[in-house]
Glycosyl transferase family 1 (Halanaerobium saccharolyticum), 306 residues
Amino acid sequence: MIKIIFMRSKNAFLPEIDAYIDYFNKFKRFKAYDSSKLKKVKLETFDVIWEFKGLGGVRTNKNQILVHEYPSLSTGKFPKLKNYIKSKINPKPDIRIFLNKTVREGFNFNDGIEFCYRDMGIDDLFTSQIKNDKEYDFVYMGSISKEREIDKFLKVFTKKNNGKLCLIGNLDTKIYNKYKKNDNLIFTGKVPYLKVPQIASKARYGINYIPDKYPFNIQTSTKILEYLALGLKVVTTDYKWIRDFEEKHKSSFYKLDYNNLKFNKENIEKHEFVSNFNPQDYFWDNLIENSNIKNKILSLINKKLR
């Protein structure tokens, strides 16, 4: 049996780890574990060590497979410098996994290490737990933080009565304190992932407020996938990834001008929304299977045993 350990800190969200574990544990040859749920972690007892990369990381013995996954580019101050430092300092793994080609090119590894792509996915709960009774006009899912500039969006949203907005996710205390008395804003805080579809599907529109800045504007928006799976109409800032996604899926969303932000519910209601999105294409099992990562790991292990 091939034992895989996914390295996760206590506070890390990373729904893909749960998806990977469910996927690999369907096969008799694999047994996958979440490090954050183990009392004691003895890395030497595992065949595959799987890290989601920041800076640094574990080192393995010659018989182990080290997987480095890069689900996003670096954020915050000097992101491109951080990408460069990671590419030079991080230990060399046996294989790397990237969100997409854009992320791989952003790190610019040139050491010949094998790689594959695995895009962001959604749980099938987002198609099976839809609530038809609408309680909110809009929903926003994700980090409610200044880094994501949600404070700027809320300032514009609350200038007039634009209906009710439910915000699901970790809260910046200052943002919450500023808006907690607004009757049109409902802050749920962080909720269990399994309950998110039930709450979010009570809205008519999903808000995808993404700063038109590197690297946010070139990376997959999981919110978009989840909103569309729930059957919500999408209201989003206008940026490169969203335009490419619209074209790929022959869809039409209502787009906000990030540099001249205005929000008008009446104009949104007049927009002709179109979605030809197929949620099954983004179910986790399908994405992981199509990434071919399972076969690549088996191949690497066979090479180690020679």
In short: The first helix runs from residue 15 to 24. Residues 102 and 236 are 21 Å apart (CA to CA).
